[in-house]
Design goal:
Its EC number is 1.1.1.203. The chain is of the alpha/beta class. It has a single domain (2-294), classed as NAD(P)-binding Rossmann-like Domain (Rossmann fold, 3-Layer(aba) Sandwich), CATH 3.40.50.720. The chain is built from nine helices and nine strands. α1 (11-22) crosses α6, α2 packs parallel to α3 (92-112) and α3 (92-112) runs parallel beside α4.
Length: 295
C-alpha cells in the first residue's frame, strides 16, 4: 500500500514506519523533522495548516514517481500519529489546539482526496487515569473500550475530541476510520533500561494502569488495521498481553484497586488494559514482552 504517515519521526512512529516498510508498504512521512530511514521520503509540514495538509495529501512519495508520467497516485491509507505527545510540553491550550486542529485537517484532507482508510492515534489517557490530579481509579477492570472517557487534562481532552471528529467524518463518508487508544509505548531498549525500576517500585506504573505496548507490536496493530476493511468507525485499545511489573494481577488488585469491580477472570499476569476487541476484530496478536528480556 501507498501510505501517508504523520508523525513518523516520533518515538512510536519511527518503529511503526519501520514495521510497515518490512511488510512491503511505501511510506511518505509527514513531520516537523525528517525520519532518517532508508526507503522513506519525508515532507516537512505543519498539520495545523490545512493548506499544507491538502498539499501533502496530493504529493508524490518520491522522485521516482515522476517516471511513469501519469500524474500523482492516490494514497491507499493515512496513518495519523503526529501530535503534541503529552501535557507539560507546550501550554495546555496549545496542546489542545495542535492535536484537535491537526487531526481535523489530516482527516479532512484524506477524505476529500478519497482516501478510504484512515487510522489515527488516540490514547490510554482518554480513560482519565493517566494525568488525573491525584489518584484516579478506573470504574472497573479490565478497562475495555466501553469504559467512560471523561478526562480533565488538555491532552486527553484533545484525544476524546479527535475520536468524535473521526466518528463524524466516518458518518459523512462511510470510509473506514479506526482510532487506536495506545497504551504507554515502550521501545526495545527500554526494557533493560527502565523496567528494573518498575520491579522495585510498582507505583511508577499506576498511571499507565500497569500496562504497556511494545513499539513493534504497535506496528503490527497498524498493519492489522490496514488489512481489515469494512468496520466503519471503531476504536481499539492497544496493549501487550501482560502488565509491566513483577506482581501478580491479584496482588495489584489488592494493593491498588480494592473496591473496583472486576469483570470476569483476570489471568496471573494479564493486562488491565484489555486488548480483546483488537484480537477479536482484527486478528491482533502481540509478540513481545519485557519478560522475554528480563526473565
Amino acid at each position: 500500500m501507498r501510505i501517508l504517515f504523520t508523525g513518523g519521526s516520533g518515538k512510536a512512529g519511527r518503529h511503526v514506519v519501520a514495521y510497515l516498510l518490512e511488510q512491503g508498504h511505501r511510506v511518505l512521512n509527514v513531520d516537523r523533522v525528517p525520519l532518517d530511514l532508508p526507503g522513506v521520503d519525508n515532507r516537512i509540514a505543519d498539520i495545523t495548516d490545512a493548506g499544507q495538509m491538502y498539499d501533502v495529501m496530493s504529493s508524490l512519495a518520491g522522485l521516482d514517481e515522476l517516471e511513469p508520467g501519469t500524474g500523482v497516485p492516490t494514497f491507499d491509507a493515512v496513518v495519523h500519529f503526529a501530535a503534541v505527545p503529552r501535557i507539560l510540553i507546550t501550554t495546555d491550550n496549545e496542546c489542545y489546539r495542535v492535536n484537535t486542529m491537526g487531526t481535523y485537517n489530516v482527516i479532512d484532507a484524506a477524505v476529500k482526496f478519497g482516501v478510504k482508510k484512515v487510522i489515527f492515534a488516540s490514547s490510554e489517557t482518554t480513560y482519565a487515569v493517566c494525568f488525573a490530579d491525584g489518584e484516579r481509579k478506573p470504574d472497573y477492570l479490565p478497562i475495555d473500550e466501553e469504559h467512560p472517557t471523561v478526562p480533565e487534562d488538555s491532552y486527553a481532552m484533545s484525544k476524546v475530541c479527535n475520536e468524535v471528529t473521526a466518528r463524524s467524518f466516518q458518518a459523512r463518508t462511510g470510509f473506514d476510520i479506526y482510532g487506536l487508544r495506545i497504551n504507554n509505548v515502550i521501545e526495545p531498549h527500554e526494557y533493560a533500561q527502565n523496567f528494573p525500576a518498575y520491579m522495585d517500585d510498582p507505583d511508577l506504573r499506576r498511571r499507565n494502569i500497569f500496562a504497556y505496548i511494545d513499539a513493534r507490536d504497535l506496528g503490527q496493530m497498524v498493519e492489522c488495521c490496514l488489512q481489515t476493511d469494512g468496520l466503519g468507525y471503531e476504536v481499539f485499545n492497544v496493549s501487550n498481553d501482560d502488565h509491566s511489573v513483577a506482581l501478580s494481577s491479584a496482588e495489584l488488585i489488592e494493593r491498588y484497586y480494592q473496591g473496583v469491580p472486576v469483570k470476569g477472570e483476570i489471568g496471573e499476569t494479564e493486562t488491565f488494559f484489555s486488548n480483546a476487541k483488537a484480537k477479536r476484530m482484527l486478528g491482533y496478536q502481540p509478540q513481545h514482552s519485557w519478560r522475554d528480556v528480563l526473565g
